[in-house]
Amino acid sequence: MNAELPATTDVLIVGAGPAGLTLATALAGRGVNAVLVDKAPDGANTSRAAVVHARTLEVLRTIGVSDELVAGGVTVPRFTVRDHDRVLLTVPFDKLPTDFPYTLLVPQNITEQVLLNRLRTLGGTVHRPHEITVIEQDPTGVTAKTSGGEVIRASYVIGTDGMHSTVRERSGISFTGDTYAQSFILADVHLDWTGPADEVALYFAPEGVTVVAPLPGGRHRIVATVDEAPEQPGVADVQALLDARGPHAHRSTVTGLVWSSRFRVHHRLADHYRAGRLFLAGDAAHVHSPAGGQGMNTGIQDALNLAGKLTAVLRDGAPQTVLDEYEAERRPVAEEVVAFTHKMTKVATVGNSPLRALRNTALRALDWIPAVHRTMAMNLSELATADTH
User: Fold this and answer.
1) Contact (Cβ atoms closer than 8 angstroms) between residue 214 and residue 105
2) What integer is the mean pLDDT of 348-352?
3) CB 304 within 8 A of CB 196
4) Can you tell me the distance from the alpha carbon of 258 to that of 65, in angstroms, rounded to the nearest whole number?
5) Which residues lie across from 264 on neighbouring strands?
6) Which residues are CB-contacts of 258 (< 8 A; sequence separation ≥ 6)?
7) Which residues contact 84 (CB under 8 A, 6 or more apart)?
8) pLDDT, tens digit, 9 for 90 and up, residues 57-94
9) Are the beta carbons of 69 and 106 closer than 8 angstroms?
10) Within the chain, what is the greatest distance between any pair of CA atoms?
11) Are 182 and 249 in contact (CB under 8 A)?
12) DSSP string of 196-227?
């Protein structure tokens, strides 16, 4: 931990999740002075977000971390949508126009550690624990104060501090959307798994959607919507989900629980990504269903886009109006992701029997159309919304 904060910096980044670490690393590599602070005494020690899509690997290559991430994860060439043992739709990634024709499964704590190692190599660090409580901007900069009374002056402040963002709150930017009625179970388990080892399976059921994905070390990630998740989901809870919603012909057995959590999911989007010298990225700007594994990916791409704009202004002398392009380019991407994952969640949780049969028939019909495969793969991988950085 670094207890002492510098008095001034060009960019103050608040929140050391994947988006904040990515932004700090990109700026350090481009010679821009940035300070990254976080109120937590330690970084992520659980896997949480585990999916890294192709577009994210492409942009992370610009800061030199993609190869290490791929080496530490499991590459998966396809998603499947299933109703128990029946495959309704296959989304293949192996024909995507990218050097990364797959989805990478790697725990978030590993992703953050790889980013942190790269940041330190470039001379940066995370200053912990520092909670920013006051943010005041004027025509020439921003003054931020911590709960411990420390003061730091910056040209710009970037909020990568999550759904309950202090930076967003201080900016006055609204966070428009709603909360899903259902809660989510998230668990990493050891599993006697009878399904394919090289795919992410999305099981659609009237009770909710359940995702089963392979992780490094022979573990599996389970994500499931439930009406009311227990505070600490256990082996029996995960087993019950798989029994009810997973494969029936060859049932799977949970043999151990590594980590679990429950949470509620929102679908919200910040009305703006900029208020003067304050900017938002990652979960501070957008949150949505984890059904497609796109949340962390969109945030990392936000960060690299914004890093390019800040570099242009602070290092290369571009006009401040360049910074307006960040919202113009990135907010429509998040808007599409929020809408896409919301539709996916709604389709997955159809409970009415005739409608469910109709949905399954429609998905099976779409599965025969190659263009549907490509469109779904391009959307999930976020290659369809690729921009420049």
Assistant:
1) yes
2) 70
3) no
4) 26
5) 183
6) 187, 188, 189, 190, 219
7) 203, 245, 246, 247, 248
8) 999 999 999 999 999 999 999 999 998 999 998 999 99
9) yes
10) 66
11) no
12) -SSEEEEEEETTEEEEEEE-GGGEEEEEEEES
Amino acid present at 76? V
CB-hemisphere CA count at 13 Å for 20? 29
Arithmetic mean of pLDDT over the chain: 90
Question: How would DSSP label each residue in 281-349?
Answer: -GGGTEE--GGGS-HHHHHHHHHHHHHHHHHHHHTT---GGGGHHHHHHHHHHHHHHHHHHHHHHHHHT
Distance CA(14)–CA(267), nearest Å, equals 22
CA distance 242 to 203: 9
**Whether domain 8-74+106-177+267-348 has CATH 3.30.565.10:** no
Question: How is the beta sheet containing 74-76 ordered, strand by strand?
Answer: 51-52, 103-105, 74-76
Residue 269 CB contacts under 8 Å (≥ 6 apart), including other chains: 175, 176, 177, 285, 286, 331, 334, 335, 338
Rounded Cα distance between 34 and 281, Å, is 15
Structure tokens at 16: 């050391």
Give the residue carrying structure tokens 């001379």: 123
pLDDT in tens, 127-179: 999 999 999 999 999 999 999 999 999 999 999 999 999 999 999 999 998 88
- CB–CB of 377/94 below 8 Å? no
How far apart are the C-alpha atoms of 389 and 374, rounded to whole Å?
Answer: 24
The structural domains of the chain, with segments of one domain joined by +, span 8-74+106-177+267-348
List, as own/partner pairs, every contact residues 355-362 make where C-beta atoms lie below 8 angstroms and the sequence separation is at least 24, other chains included.
356/206, 359/204, 360/83, 360/86, 360/88
- Residues constituting the chain: 389
DSSP H or E segment with residue 36: strand 34-37
Q: How far apart are CA 294 and CA 200, in angstroms?
A: 14
Q: What pLDDT shows up at residue 266?
A: 79
pLDDT band at 44 (very low <50, low <70, confident <90, very high): low
